[in-house]
Structure formats: C-alpha cells, structure tokens
C-alpha cells in the first residue's frame, strides 16, 4: 500500500483530525522522533540492572550490551512482563535496585503522579538514572489504544522540573522540551515523521512543547 503523504497542508483546515490516533499505523509517530533522540543521547545511562515500563524495546535498542539484567514492569500481566506493579502503589518493589529506569509516555496515565515519581526514586540504586518522557501538546489517547484506564495529565518543562525535583532534588534533575508549532499541529492531525522535513522536526520552540524529557539521577549518599 503506497504511503499517502500529505502534500497540501490546506487539508488541515478541518474540525476533525486528518488522521486520528497519532497516525499510529501510518509510520513513525512524530513524538517518537524526540523520544528516541533523547534516549540515544543518554544511551550511556542504560546499563547494569535496567527496568523499562511497558515493554523492552528501548532497552534492546539502546542498551549497547551495557545491560547486565533487564526487567519489564507493567500493571497488567502479559507475556514479557517480569515485574507486576502499579508505580503509584508498589510496596512490593525492592528499594535501591535499578541502575536505570526507562519510562516513556507512561506518567500521563497515572493519576497519583507524585507517588509514581517517588516510587521511581525509591527503586533506583544510588547513582542510578531515570530516563522519562512525557506528553506536552497532544491529543488524548483513545480507549482503543489503552490497555485500561485513560490519560490524566499533560506536562510542561516547569511542571516536570518541579515534580521530579521534589523527589530527586533540583540539582539532580535535567528537563528539556522538544517540538514547535508545525510539529505539534502535524502531530495533532496524525501526520507522521516522514511528512515533515528533518529541519522542521529539529526546530525547537520551547513555547510549543510536544515532548518533555527528564533525566533524573538518584544522588549517592554522602560517606
């Protein structure tokens, strides 16, 4: 089936999106460009005992043979999941264990996001790194794309910085945002990365954050 690339952007003058559901089945979603660039830049952090929330695709892709043990954590049991827990209420997860936590586009779906961040902090080993991505400007995921529940939150650089600094300390949190008005408009209409140029995707306007990223380090205790 040929790729139906949008050429005439006047087609976006409409009340319903050009394609619903992020263009999920048409190609690489625009937000994934920013998510994967972020993880690629911080691939050196993906090492030791790692856990990825939901699936293992980014541990496999960016681990570069630095991973000694890999787990997949999810709230629902299914093939490939090795740890069953709700990040917002996970007393059964051990503390100070993971060298890296990869959590992409998950915290929007957890109502008690502060509790989830505190769990992430608790289960990281001292010196461990959490690599987090969050939705900024985005549609709400339709129920057909959600295993259960729905989405509660969208984030800015400022809310992400405040939330993670409360647990990790401001000096241990680095927050960025990526996107621009064209990328955000295209994403809302379900266009995919191939329908924008590399330059259009790369331009970053902090007033139009499509994706927010967080690198948070659990400080080692003073000795």
UniProtKB/TrEMBL annotation:
Gene Ontology molecular function: S-adenosylmethionine-dependent methyltransferase activity
Indicate the segments forming the Methyltransferase type domain, all copies: 50-132
Q: Which Gene3D superfamilies match?
A: Vaccinia Virus protein VP39
Q: Which CDD domains match?
A: AdoMet_MTases
Q: Which InterPro entries match?
A: Methyltransf_11 (IPR013216), SAM-dependent_MTases_sf (IPR029063)
Has keyword Transferase?
yes
A Pfam family (short name) is Methyltransf_11
Q: Which keywords annotate this record?
A: Methyltransferase, Transferase
Protein name in the entry: Methyltransferase domain-containing protein
What species is this protein from? Telmatobacter sp. DSM 110680
